[in-house]
DNA sequence: AAAATAGTGTCTCTGAGACATTATTGA
DNA sequence: TCAATAATGTCTCAGAGACACTATTTT
Protein backbone atom coordinates (compact mmCIF):
# COMPACT_ATOMS: atom_id res chain seq x y z
CA UNK A 1 0.00 0.00 0.00
CA UNK A 2 0.99 3.64 -0.33
CA UNK A 3 3.33 5.28 2.15
CA UNK A 4 1.72 7.42 4.81
CA UNK A 5 3.16 10.17 7.00
CA UNK A 6 4.34 8.94 10.38
CA UNK A 7 2.95 10.71 13.44
CA UNK A 8 3.61 10.36 17.13
CA UNK A 9 0.41 9.94 19.15
CA UNK A 10 0.39 11.00 22.76
CA UNK A 11 -2.28 11.13 25.43
CA UNK A 12 -2.63 13.97 27.91
CA UNK A 13 -4.91 13.86 30.92
CA UNK A 14 -6.77 16.68 32.64
CA UNK A 15 -7.26 15.01 36.01
CA UNK A 16 -9.56 16.96 38.31
CA UNK A 17 -10.41 16.36 41.92
CA UNK A 18 -11.70 18.36 44.85
CA UNK A 19 -9.43 18.85 47.86
CA UNK A 20 -10.37 21.10 50.76
CA UNK A 21 -13.32 22.50 48.83
CA UNK A 22 -11.07 23.64 45.98
CA UNK A 23 -10.88 22.19 42.49
CA UNK A 24 -7.40 20.80 41.80
CA UNK A 25 -5.67 19.57 38.67
CA UNK A 26 -2.78 17.12 38.53
CA UNK A 27 0.40 18.52 36.99
CA UNK A 28 3.88 17.08 36.60
CA UNK A 29 7.10 18.98 36.30
CA UNK A 30 8.86 17.91 33.14
CA UNK A 31 12.21 16.25 33.62
CA UNK A 32 13.42 16.30 30.01
CA UNK A 33 13.30 18.47 26.94
CA UNK A 34 11.30 20.04 25.53
CA UNK A 35 9.94 22.35 28.24
CA UNK A 36 12.23 20.84 30.89
CA UNK A 37 11.30 22.21 34.29
CA UNK A 38 7.85 23.41 33.19
CA UNK A 39 4.65 22.06 34.64
CA UNK A 40 2.57 19.99 32.28
CA UNK A 41 -0.45 17.74 32.18
CA UNK A 42 0.45 14.11 32.81
CA UNK A 43 0.77 12.22 29.56
CA UNK A 44 3.07 10.52 27.14
CA UNK A 45 3.41 8.43 24.04
CA UNK A 46 0.84 5.80 23.25
CA UNK A 47 2.29 2.34 22.80
CA UNK A 48 1.93 0.55 19.51
CA UNK A 49 -0.59 -2.04 20.61
CA UNK A 50 -2.28 0.00 23.31
CA UNK A 51 -5.78 1.42 23.21
CA UNK A 52 -5.90 5.18 23.64
CA UNK A 53 -8.01 4.96 26.78
CA UNK A 54 -5.64 2.40 28.26
CA UNK A 55 -2.75 4.74 27.57
CA UNK A 56 -4.50 7.52 29.47
CA UNK A 57 -5.15 5.19 32.41
CA UNK A 58 -1.53 4.05 32.36
CA UNK A 59 -0.09 7.57 32.33
CA UNK A 60 -2.35 8.53 35.20
CA UNK A 61 -1.41 5.43 37.16
CA UNK A 62 2.27 6.24 36.70
CA UNK A 63 1.80 9.58 38.48
CA UNK A 64 -0.88 8.77 40.94
CA UNK A 65 -1.82 5.29 42.03
CA UNK A 66 -5.48 5.11 41.18
CA UNK A 67 -7.42 2.13 39.97
CA UNK A 68 -9.83 2.42 37.11
CA UNK A 69 -12.76 2.29 39.51
CA UNK A 70 -11.61 5.38 41.35
CA UNK A 71 -12.20 7.70 38.47
CA UNK A 72 -14.20 8.40 35.41
CA UNK A 73 -12.33 8.97 32.19
CA UNK A 74 -13.80 10.51 29.08
CA UNK A 75 -12.25 11.68 25.86
CA UNK A 76 -11.91 15.45 25.65
CA UNK A 77 -10.50 16.43 22.26
CA UNK A 78 -7.53 15.84 20.00
CA UNK A 79 -4.89 18.53 19.53
CA UNK A 80 -2.82 18.26 16.41
CA UNK A 81 -1.73 21.65 15.11
CA UNK A 82 1.61 21.46 13.35
CA UNK A 83 4.24 22.94 15.61
CA UNK A 84 2.36 22.37 18.87
CA UNK A 85 5.32 20.20 19.86
CA UNK A 86 8.71 21.74 19.06
CA UNK A 87 10.26 18.38 18.27
CA UNK A 88 10.80 17.58 14.61
CA UNK A 89 8.21 14.84 14.41
CA UNK A 90 4.55 15.67 14.18
CA UNK A 91 2.86 14.97 17.52
CA UNK A 92 -0.90 14.57 17.83
CA UNK A 93 -2.28 14.42 21.34
CA UNK A 94 -5.56 12.83 22.37
CA UNK A 95 -6.65 14.60 25.55
CA UNK A 96 -8.76 12.96 28.26
CA UNK A 97 -10.73 14.26 31.19
CA UNK A 98 -10.45 12.31 34.45
CA UNK A 99 -12.66 13.02 37.43
CA UNK A 100 -12.39 11.46 40.86
CA UNK A 101 -13.09 11.96 44.55
CA UNK A 102 -10.13 13.21 46.55
CA UNK A 103 -7.54 11.32 44.51
CA UNK A 104 -4.35 10.38 46.34
CA UNK A 105 -1.14 12.39 46.45
CA UNK A 106 0.88 11.71 43.33
CA UNK A 107 4.10 9.75 43.23
CA UNK A 108 6.81 11.08 40.98
CA UNK A 109 6.82 8.81 37.96
CA UNK A 110 9.26 7.81 35.31
CA UNK A 111 9.37 10.94 33.18
CA UNK A 112 8.53 13.50 35.78
CA UNK A 113 10.83 15.24 38.19
CA UNK A 114 7.87 16.09 40.43
CA UNK A 115 4.11 15.79 40.49
CA UNK A 116 1.41 17.46 42.57
CA UNK A 117 -2.15 18.66 42.70
CA UNK A 118 -2.57 22.36 41.92
CA UNK A 119 -5.61 24.54 42.53
CA UNK A 120 -6.90 25.17 39.03
CA UNK A 121 -6.74 28.93 39.45
CA UNK A 122 -3.03 28.71 40.15
CA UNK A 123 -2.48 26.22 37.35
CA UNK A 124 -4.15 28.56 34.89
CA UNK A 125 -1.94 31.42 36.02
CA UNK A 126 1.36 29.72 35.36
CA UNK A 127 3.02 28.93 32.04
CA UNK A 128 2.41 25.31 31.11
CA UNK A 129 4.27 23.19 28.58
CA UNK A 130 3.03 22.80 25.00
CA UNK A 131 -0.61 23.84 24.48
CA UNK A 132 -1.56 22.49 27.87
CA UNK A 133 -3.09 25.76 29.01
CA UNK A 134 -5.60 25.41 26.19
CA UNK A 135 -6.24 21.76 26.98
CA UNK A 136 -6.78 22.56 30.64
CA UNK A 137 -9.18 25.37 29.75
CA UNK A 138 -11.14 23.06 27.48
CA UNK A 139 -11.23 20.35 30.14
CA UNK A 140 -12.56 22.74 32.75
CA UNK A 141 -15.24 24.01 30.44
CA UNK A 142 -16.27 20.46 29.58
CA UNK A 143 -16.51 19.51 33.25
CA UNK A 144 -18.53 22.63 34.07
CA UNK A 145 -20.89 22.08 31.17
CA UNK A 146 -21.46 18.41 31.89
CA UNK A 147 -22.47 19.10 35.47
CA UNK A 148 -25.44 20.94 34.03
CA UNK A 149 -27.00 18.24 31.97
CA UNK A 150 -25.64 14.98 33.36
CA UNK A 151 -25.18 13.34 36.74
CA UNK A 152 -21.41 13.60 36.31
CA UNK A 153 -21.01 15.44 39.62
CA UNK A 154 -21.21 12.15 41.50
CA UNK A 155 -17.84 11.27 39.94
CA UNK A 156 -16.28 13.82 42.27
CA UNK A 157 -17.85 12.19 45.31
CA UNK A 158 -16.78 9.12 47.29
CA UNK A 159 -18.93 6.01 47.14
CA UNK A 160 -21.29 7.36 49.79
CA UNK A 161 -21.93 11.04 50.19
CA UNK A 162 -24.41 13.55 51.55
CA UNK A 163 -26.38 15.99 49.46
CA UNK A 164 -24.24 18.68 51.03
CA UNK A 165 -21.15 17.02 49.57
CA UNK A 166 -22.78 16.84 46.16
CA UNK A 167 -23.84 20.46 46.32
CA UNK A 168 -20.31 21.47 47.25
CA UNK A 169 -19.11 19.78 44.06
CA UNK A 170 -21.32 22.05 42.00
CA UNK A 171 -20.35 25.10 43.98
CA UNK A 172 -16.65 24.32 43.74
CA UNK A 173 -16.60 23.53 40.05
CA UNK A 174 -18.90 26.38 39.07
CA UNK A 175 -17.63 28.88 41.59
CA UNK A 176 -21.14 29.90 42.58
CA UNK A 177 -23.57 29.06 45.35
CA UNK A 178 -26.79 27.09 45.05
CA UNK A 179 -29.89 27.22 47.18
CA UNK A 180 -29.81 24.22 49.49
CA UNK A 181 -33.45 23.26 49.39
CA UNK A 182 -33.95 23.83 45.68
CA UNK A 183 -30.88 21.71 45.01
CA UNK A 184 -32.25 18.98 47.22
CA UNK A 185 -35.58 19.05 45.46
CA UNK A 186 -33.94 18.85 42.04
CA UNK A 187 -31.56 16.01 42.83
CA UNK A 188 -34.05 13.86 44.71
CA UNK A 189 -36.69 14.52 42.08
CA UNK A 190 -34.46 13.29 39.27
CA UNK A 191 -34.66 9.59 38.48
CA UNK A 192 -31.29 7.94 38.13
CA UNK A 193 -29.26 10.53 40.02
CA UNK A 194 -28.80 9.29 43.59
CA UNK A 195 -30.03 6.39 45.73
CA UNK A 196 -30.65 6.51 49.46
CA UNK A 197 -28.40 4.15 51.40
CA UNK A 198 -30.59 4.35 54.51
CA UNK A 199 -27.54 5.31 56.53
CA UNK A 200 -26.42 8.62 57.98
CA UNK A 201 -23.19 10.62 58.06
CA UNK A 202 -21.37 10.66 61.38
CA UNK A 203 -18.85 12.87 63.08
CA UNK A 204 -20.22 16.22 61.94
CA UNK A 205 -22.04 18.83 63.94
CA UNK A 206 -25.76 19.31 63.71
CA UNK A 207 -28.38 16.89 62.50
CA UNK A 208 -26.80 13.94 60.67
CA UNK A 209 -27.32 13.97 56.92
CA UNK A 210 -28.60 11.02 54.95
CA UNK A 211 -25.99 9.20 52.90
CA UNK A 212 -26.60 8.56 49.22
CA UNK A 213 -24.73 6.75 46.50
CA UNK A 214 -24.64 7.39 42.76
CA UNK A 215 -27.50 5.59 41.04
CA UNK A 216 -26.49 2.53 39.06
CA UNK A 217 -26.02 2.93 35.33
CA UNK A 218 -24.29 6.25 35.63
CA UNK A 219 -24.16 8.86 32.95
CA UNK A 220 -27.82 9.78 33.12
CA UNK A 221 -28.96 12.91 31.37
CA UNK A 222 -30.81 15.60 33.30
CA UNK A 223 -34.05 16.71 31.64
CA UNK A 224 -34.43 19.55 32.22
CA UNK A 225 -30.86 20.42 33.17
CA UNK A 226 -29.60 21.98 36.37
CA UNK A 227 -28.48 25.43 35.31
CA UNK A 228 -25.64 27.50 36.65
CA UNK A 229 -26.54 30.67 38.48
CA UNK B 1 15.46 11.90 21.73
CA UNK B 2 13.89 8.53 22.45
CA UNK B 3 12.21 6.57 19.70
CA UNK B 4 8.45 6.69 19.61
CA UNK B 5 5.89 4.41 17.94
CA UNK B 6 4.86 5.57 14.47
CA UNK B 7 1.16 5.96 13.84
CA UNK B 8 -0.86 6.88 10.79
CA UNK B 9 -3.33 9.70 11.46
CA UNK B 10 -6.42 9.97 9.31
CA UNK B 11 -9.44 12.24 9.34
CA UNK B 12 -12.98 11.04 8.69
CA UNK B 13 -15.89 13.37 8.17
CA UNK B 14 -19.55 12.87 9.05
CA UNK B 15 -21.03 15.39 6.61
CA UNK B 16 -24.73 15.99 7.17
CA UNK B 17 -27.16 17.99 5.12
CA UNK B 18 -30.89 18.11 4.57
CA UNK B 19 -32.25 17.25 1.14
CA UNK B 20 -35.96 16.98 0.44
CA UNK B 21 -36.75 17.18 4.16
CA UNK B 22 -34.57 14.14 4.89
CA UNK B 23 -31.28 14.10 6.71
CA UNK B 24 -28.50 12.83 4.44
CA UNK B 25 -24.90 11.81 5.03
CA UNK B 26 -22.10 11.85 2.48
CA UNK B 27 -20.56 8.44 1.79
CA UNK B 28 -17.96 7.30 -0.72
CA UNK B 29 -17.53 3.85 -2.14
CA UNK B 30 -14.00 2.69 -1.52
CA UNK B 31 -11.89 2.05 -4.58
CA UNK B 32 -9.00 0.22 -2.91
CA UNK B 33 -8.29 -2.20 -0.13
CA UNK B 34 -9.12 -2.56 2.63
CA UNK B 35 -12.91 -2.70 2.36
CA UNK B 36 -12.82 -2.19 -1.43
CA UNK B 37 -16.33 -1.66 -2.73
CA UNK B 38 -17.78 -0.80 0.71
CA UNK B 39 -19.32 2.55 1.50
CA UNK B 40 -17.35 4.67 3.93
CA UNK B 41 -17.21 8.16 5.38
CA UNK B 42 -15.05 10.50 3.32
CA UNK B 43 -11.59 10.78 4.78
CA UNK B 44 -7.94 9.96 4.38
CA UNK B 45 -4.45 10.42 5.65
CA UNK B 46 -3.42 13.70 7.19
CA UNK B 47 -0.41 15.28 5.52
CA UNK B 48 2.73 15.88 7.49
CA UNK B 49 2.49 19.65 7.73
CA UNK B 50 -1.28 19.92 7.61
CA UNK B 51 -3.55 20.95 10.45
CA UNK B 52 -6.18 18.34 11.29
CA UNK B 53 -9.05 20.67 10.52
CA UNK B 54 -7.50 21.58 7.20
CA UNK B 55 -7.22 17.90 6.37
CA UNK B 56 -10.92 17.43 7.06
CA UNK B 57 -11.78 20.38 4.84
CA UNK B 58 -9.53 19.05 2.10
CA UNK B 59 -11.01 15.55 2.15
CA UNK B 60 -14.47 17.02 1.99
CA UNK B 61 -13.55 19.31 -0.85
CA UNK B 62 -12.16 16.37 -2.80
CA UNK B 63 -15.56 14.69 -2.75
CA UNK B 64 -17.89 17.60 -2.83
CA UNK B 65 -16.94 21.07 -3.93
CA UNK B 66 -17.78 23.16 -0.93
CA UNK B 67 -16.00 26.21 0.35
CA UNK B 68 -15.24 26.60 4.02
CA UNK B 69 -18.02 29.17 4.32
CA UNK B 70 -20.63 26.70 3.18
CA UNK B 71 -20.35 24.51 6.20
CA UNK B 72 -19.55 24.32 9.84
CA UNK B 73 -16.94 21.84 10.92
CA UNK B 74 -16.40 20.69 14.46
CA UNK B 75 -14.29 17.95 15.94
CA UNK B 76 -16.28 14.88 16.93
CA UNK B 77 -13.99 12.33 18.56
CA UNK B 78 -10.85 10.33 17.92
CA UNK B 79 -11.03 6.61 17.22
CA UNK B 80 -7.87 4.68 17.87
CA UNK B 81 -8.59 1.13 18.99
CA UNK B 82 -5.86 -1.26 17.88
CA UNK B 83 -7.17 -3.29 14.99
CA UNK B 84 -9.81 -0.80 13.86
CA UNK B 85 -7.92 -0.70 10.58
CA UNK B 86 -6.86 -4.12 9.27
CA UNK B 87 -3.65 -2.79 7.79
CA UNK B 88 -0.47 -3.57 9.72
CA UNK B 89 0.22 0.00 10.81
CA UNK B 90 -1.68 1.52 13.67
CA UNK B 91 -4.23 4.01 12.34
CA UNK B 92 -5.80 6.66 14.56
CA UNK B 93 -8.67 8.62 13.06
CA UNK B 94 -9.79 12.07 14.11
CA UNK B 95 -13.47 12.32 13.19
CA UNK B 96 -15.19 15.58 12.30
CA UNK B 97 -18.79 16.64 12.03
CA UNK B 98 -19.68 18.87 9.07
CA UNK B 99 -23.06 20.53 8.73
CA UNK B 100 -24.32 22.53 5.79
CA UNK B 101 -27.39 23.65 3.91
CA UNK B 102 -28.25 21.52 0.90
CA UNK B 103 -24.64 20.76 -0.01
CA UNK B 104 -23.97 20.06 -3.68
CA UNK B 105 -23.89 16.68 -5.36
CA UNK B 106 -20.53 15.04 -4.79
CA UNK B 107 -17.92 14.54 -7.47
CA UNK B 108 -16.07 11.26 -7.39
CA UNK B 109 -12.66 12.07 -5.99
CA UNK B 110 -9.23 10.59 -6.13
CA UNK B 111 -9.63 7.59 -3.85
CA UNK B 112 -13.27 6.92 -4.32
CA UNK B 113 -14.99 4.96 -7.02
CA UNK B 114 -18.24 6.74 -6.30
CA UNK B 115 -19.69 9.24 -3.88
CA UNK B 116 -23.24 10.21 -3.00
CA UNK B 117 -25.59 11.52 -0.34
CA UNK B 118 -27.46 8.80 1.52
CA UNK B 119 -30.48 9.18 3.78
CA UNK B 120 -29.05 8.48 7.21
CA UNK B 121 -31.54 5.71 7.90
CA UNK B 122 -30.30 3.84 4.86
CA UNK B 123 -26.68 4.55 5.67
CA UNK B 124 -27.14 3.11 9.14
CA UNK B 125 -28.68 -0.02 7.70
CA UNK B 126 -25.81 -0.94 5.42
CA UNK B 127 -22.40 -2.31 6.32
CA UNK B 128 -19.83 0.47 6.33
CA UNK B 129 -16.05 0.21 6.21
CA UNK B 130 -13.93 0.22 9.36
CA UNK B 131 -15.76 1.49 12.47
CA UNK B 132 -17.63 4.05 10.42
CA UNK B 133 -21.01 2.86 11.62
CA UNK B 134 -19.98 3.82 15.12
CA UNK B 135 -18.58 7.16 13.98
CA UNK B 136 -21.76 7.93 12.09
CA UNK B 137 -23.87 7.02 15.11
CA UNK B 138 -21.77 9.27 17.33
CA UNK B 139 -21.96 12.11 14.82
CA UNK B 140 -25.74 11.89 14.61
CA UNK B 141 -26.08 11.90 18.37
CA UNK B 142 -23.79 14.90 18.62
CA UNK B 143 -25.78 16.82 16.04
CA UNK B 144 -29.08 15.95 17.73
CA UNK B 145 -27.79 16.94 21.14
CA UNK B 146 -26.29 20.20 20.00
CA UNK B 147 -29.55 21.36 18.45
CA UNK B 148 -30.93 21.36 21.96
CA UNK B 149 -28.55 23.70 23.65
CA UNK B 150 -26.95 25.72 20.85
CA UNK B 151 -28.04 27.64 17.79
CA UNK B 152 -26.32 25.05 15.60
CA UNK B 153 -29.50 24.41 13.61
CA UNK B 154 -28.86 27.51 11.53
CA UNK B 155 -25.85 25.69 10.05
CA UNK B 156 -28.32 23.52 8.13
CA UNK B 157 -30.04 26.58 6.67
CA UNK B 158 -29.07 28.78 3.73
CA UNK B 159 -27.98 32.33 4.40
CA UNK B 160 -31.56 33.54 4.60
CA UNK B 161 -34.34 31.32 5.82
CA UNK B 162 -37.83 31.35 7.29
CA UNK B 163 -38.71 30.11 10.74
CA UNK B 164 -40.51 27.30 8.97
CA UNK B 165 -37.23 26.23 7.40
CA UNK B 166 -35.50 26.34 10.76
CA UNK B 167 -38.24 24.35 12.40
CA UNK B 168 -38.00 21.73 9.67
CA UNK B 169 -34.33 21.34 10.53
CA UNK B 170 -35.25 20.37 14.06
CA UNK B 171 -38.03 18.10 12.95
CA UNK B 172 -35.84 16.38 10.38
CA UNK B 173 -32.85 15.86 12.62
CA UNK B 174 -34.88 14.85 15.66
CA UNK B 175 -37.55 12.96 13.80
CA UNK B 176 -40.33 14.60 15.79
CA UNK B 177 -42.70 17.50 15.32
CA UNK B 178 -42.66 20.81 17.15
CA UNK B 179 -45.49 23.21 17.83
CA UNK B 180 -45.19 26.03 15.35
CA UNK B 181 -46.07 28.92 17.61
CA UNK B 182 -44.13 27.75 20.64
CA UNK B 183 -41.10 27.26 18.41
CA UNK B 184 -41.50 30.77 17.07
CA UNK B 185 -41.76 32.21 20.55
CA UNK B 186 -38.65 30.38 21.71
CA UNK B 187 -36.45 31.27 18.74
CA UNK B 188 -37.46 34.92 18.55
CA UNK B 189 -37.19 35.26 22.30
CA UNK B 190 -33.61 34.00 22.35
CA UNK B 191 -30.91 36.65 21.98
CA UNK B 192 -28.26 35.73 19.45
CA UNK B 193 -30.25 33.14 17.54
CA UNK B 194 -31.70 34.82 14.45
CA UNK B 195 -31.91 38.33 13.00
CA UNK B 196 -34.78 39.70 10.95
CA UNK B 197 -33.70 40.65 7.43
CA UNK B 198 -36.82 42.75 6.89
CA UNK B 199 -37.52 40.80 3.73
CA UNK B 200 -40.04 38.09 2.93
CA UNK B 201 -39.93 34.70 1.25
CA UNK B 202 -41.47 34.55 -2.22
CA UNK B 203 -42.90 31.90 -4.45
CA UNK B 204 -44.70 29.87 -1.82
CA UNK B 205 -48.40 29.62 -1.19
CA UNK B 206 -50.09 31.46 1.63
CA UNK B 207 -48.91 34.47 3.55
CA UNK B 208 -45.22 35.16 2.89
CA UNK B 209 -42.93 34.36 5.77
CA UNK B 210 -40.34 36.75 7.13
CA UNK B 211 -36.75 35.93 6.21
CA UNK B 212 -34.14 35.67 8.93
CA UNK B 213 -30.43 35.09 8.99
CA UNK B 214 -28.25 33.48 11.65
CA UNK B 215 -27.19 36.03 14.23
CA UNK B 216 -23.59 37.12 14.05
CA UNK B 217 -21.13 35.44 16.39
CA UNK B 218 -22.66 32.05 15.94
CA UNK B 219 -22.36 29.23 18.39
CA UNK B 220 -24.56 30.80 21.04
CA UNK B 221 -25.75 28.65 23.89
CA UNK B 222 -29.47 28.34 24.60
CA UNK B 223 -30.38 28.98 28.24
CA UNK B 224 -32.64 27.27 28.92
CA UNK B 225 -32.32 24.76 26.07
CA UNK B 226 -34.89 23.77 23.49
CA UNK B 227 -35.82 20.24 24.44
CA UNK B 228 -36.78 17.37 22.19
CA UNK B 229 -40.29 16.08 22.47
C1' DA C 1 -30.34 26.11 75.97
C1' DA C 2 -27.94 27.52 71.97
C1' DA C 3 -25.74 26.70 67.73
C1' DA C 4 -25.37 24.09 63.77
C1' DT C 5 -26.96 21.49 60.27
C1' DA C 6 -30.63 18.63 57.77
C1' DG C 7 -35.08 18.17 55.91
C1' DT C 8 -39.58 19.99 54.29
C1' DG C 9 -43.08 23.34 52.85
C1' DT C 10 -44.85 27.46 50.42
C1' DC C 11 -45.28 31.37 47.48
C1' DT C 12 -44.25 33.53 43.11
C1' DC C 13 -42.81 33.95 38.56
C1' DT C 14 -40.96 32.29 34.22
C1' DG C 15 -41.41 29.57 30.48
C1' DA C 16 -43.13 25.33 27.98
C1' DG C 17 -47.09 23.07 25.91
C1' DA C 18 -51.63 23.10 23.90
C1' DC C 19 -54.49 25.46 21.17
C1' DA C 20 -57.29 29.47 19.45
C1' DT C 21 -57.46 33.67 16.69
C1' DT C 22 -56.13 36.99 13.33
C1' DA C 23 -53.39 38.35 9.09
C1' DT C 24 -51.93 37.94 4.35
C1' DT C 25 -51.11 35.78 0.35
C1' DG C 26 -52.22 32.72 -4.16
C1' DA C 27 -55.56 29.82 -6.66
C1' DT D 1 -64.20 33.18 -1.89
C1' DC D 2 -61.48 29.63 -0.20
C1' DA D 3 -57.36 27.25 0.95
C1' DA D 4 -52.94 27.73 2.68
C1' DT D 5 -49.69 29.58 5.42
C1' DA D 6 -47.78 33.13 8.81
C1' DA D 7 -48.04 35.69 12.96
C1' DT D 8 -49.81 36.50 17.46
C1' DG D 9 -52.44 35.74 21.75
C1' DT D 10 -54.26 32.99 25.76
C1' DC D 11 -54.74 29.47 29.16
C1' DT D 12 -52.68 26.03 32.09
C1' DC D 13 -49.22 23.59 34.32
C1' DA D 14 -44.43 22.29 35.69
C1' DG D 15 -40.48 23.71 37.62
C1' DA D 16 -36.97 27.19 39.30
C1' DG D 17 -35.88 30.65 42.73
C1' DA D 18 -36.48 32.80 47.15
C1' DC D 19 -37.26 31.98 51.64
C1' DA D 20 -39.67 30.29 55.92
C1' DC D 21 -40.25 26.70 59.09
C1' DT D 22 -39.46 22.28 61.48
C1' DA D 23 -36.31 18.38 63.01
C1' DT D 24 -32.25 16.40 65.06
C1' DT D 25 -27.87 16.47 66.48
C1' DT D 26 -23.43 18.45 69.16
C1' DT D 27 -21.52 21.75 72.34
TrEMBL record, chains A, B:
Residues 9-140 form the Nudix hydrolase domain. It comes from the Bacteria. InterPro entries: NUDIX_hydrolase-like_dom_sf, NUDIX_hydrolase_dom, WH-like_DNA-bd_sf, WH_DNA-bd_sf, WHD_NrtR. This is NUDIX domain-containing protein. It comes from Ornithinimicrobium kibberense.
